[in-house]
Each structure stands twice: as C-alpha cells, then as structure tokens.
Design brief:
single chain, mainly alpha, hpI Integrase, Chain A, 13 helices, 63% helix
C-alpha cells in the first residue's frame, strides 16, 4: 500500500483540481472543502445542504472520545459552497452519488475518483487522507504552528502530526513548547522501571548493528543512502538537544 502524501507542489495541486473538475464538479467541491478545512472525508459526505448554507464554520465530533471540533470556512470557500448549493433544498446531501435518490456519495467512489485523477497526472500517493494532509501541510507551511494542527486533528503529540504531514520534526519548536506538566510526565515515564535507560540501550544496540555492517562486507547501495540520512538526523537532533541543555544550565 502506498503512503498517502499531502500535495505540496502548487502547480500539481492546481492540475489535480482541474482534473477533478473535468470528471465532475462535485468532486472538486468535495476536495476544496477537504483542503480548506481539514475535515475528514466521512464527515464531509454526511453534510446536507442546510448544514453548510450561510455558515462560516462547521463543527463535528472527532476521535474515539467524540471531541467536538470546529473547522473554519474561509470567505473564498464560503463563496464556492454558496454557488454550488444555490437552488438546492436544505435536506439534500451536499455531495450526492450517482443515484437520482438523495443519497450521499460513497467513500469508495470518492477514493476511486481521487486515485483515477491522481494517476492521470502522475500522482500515485493519493487517497482519501490526501485532502486532510494537504490542508495540514499548507497550514503548517504558512504559519509554522504545528500545535494548532495537532489540536485540530486530535493527535496525541506534535511528533505524530509532523509524521502525518511528511515533515521532519522541528526540535527547537518542540523544546520551546514543553510545559512543566510535560516535564513531570516525562520524568515519571523515563524513571519508572528504567524505561529511559532501556530505550537508550535499544538505540545503542541498533546503532551497533549498523556499525558492524559498515565495517564488514559491502552492503546494498540503498543501505548506505538510508544510513547517511539516519546519521545526519541523529547528529542534528543531538546538536539541538545539547544546545537546549546548555541554555538551561
């Protein structure tokens, strides 16, 4: 299964939108709402016209805890939605399927169309999460605020959000946002049953395996490329960590 990625290139994004428009304008509207709000596909498909008419925000319950979360609609997106629903009944589903009856579009059909549109322009890492990931990446790229995205998407940590949008964690940002409560929780976890020491020992063990491969027989070329990236990231993280420790003493 291919990893679903956000669309980061603006020209590719525009081409993907135009391809959806050519298939059916409802798929373009679905995509515009997704990348404009961060809403999940299944939530968008359950909206009826009356749920969005004249609204500047939409509220849904997300996650296993049913946390109420409000997603803002930009003025441009409000205009797009208004034009799309003009003349339609409030009881109509916003994005309908092929049937003449009032039924919402299925997730499976949305996925098939997104995949078809993506493949036609050379994008393979397309799926139903593309909309949400693209919204999240664009917001982070414009603001640098990973914590807003973490809260909006109900992620447990900013590291999860960084992985979700395909970005390397900004360690300095993470260090700067650590609270006293975070420090206490980390201390309890790392000291309890020597979790911290066990994790360091595990990392050292993995690095020793890599060291033995580097000093032994020749490996496949991709091993060296991946190892180089790994070591570069480890060195950068350790440098940031050491700087933060020097600043706290």
């Amino acid at each position: 299964m291919n990893w679903v990625a956000p669309i980061k290139d603006e020209s590719v994004l525009l081409k993907f939108k135009e391809t959806l428009r050519e298939i059916d304008s409802k798929y373009l509207i679905l995509f515009e709402i997704g990348i404009g709000t961060g809403l999940q596909l299944q939530d968008i498909l359950q909206f009826k016209v009356g749920d969005v008419r004249g609204k500047d925000s939409l509220t849904v319950n997300i996650g296993t805890r049913n946390v109420a979360q409000t997603f803002q609609l930009s003025p441009e997106l409000q205009q797009t939605i208004a034009a799309f629903i003009e003349g339609r009944d409030d009881d109509d589903y916003l994005i309908t399927g092929y049937s003449r009856n009032n039924h919402p579009l299925s997730r499976e059909q949305a996925y098939r169309v997104f995949r078809k549109a993506g493949v036609s322009i050379g994008l393979k890492s397309i799926g139903t999460q593309t909309m949400r990931k693209t919204f999240a990446w664009r917001y982070y790229n414009e603001t640098g605020d990973i914590y807003y995205i973490q809260h909006l998407l109900n992620h447990a940590s900013p590291n999860i959000t960084f992985r979700y949008i395909g970005e390397k964690p900004n360690i300095q940002v993470l260090y700067g946002k650590i609270t006293d409560d975070d420090n206490q929780k980390a201390m309890q976890y790392l000291l309890m049953d020597k979790h911290g020491i066990a994790e360091i020992d595990s990392i050292i063990s993995d690095l020793k395996v890599i060291r033995r491969k580097l000093s032994g027989k020749l490996q496949a070329p991709d091993f060296y490329g991946k190892t180089d990236i790994l070591l570069e990231n480890i060195l950068e993280i350790l440098q940031d960590y050491n700087q933060s420790q020097a600043g706290s003493t």
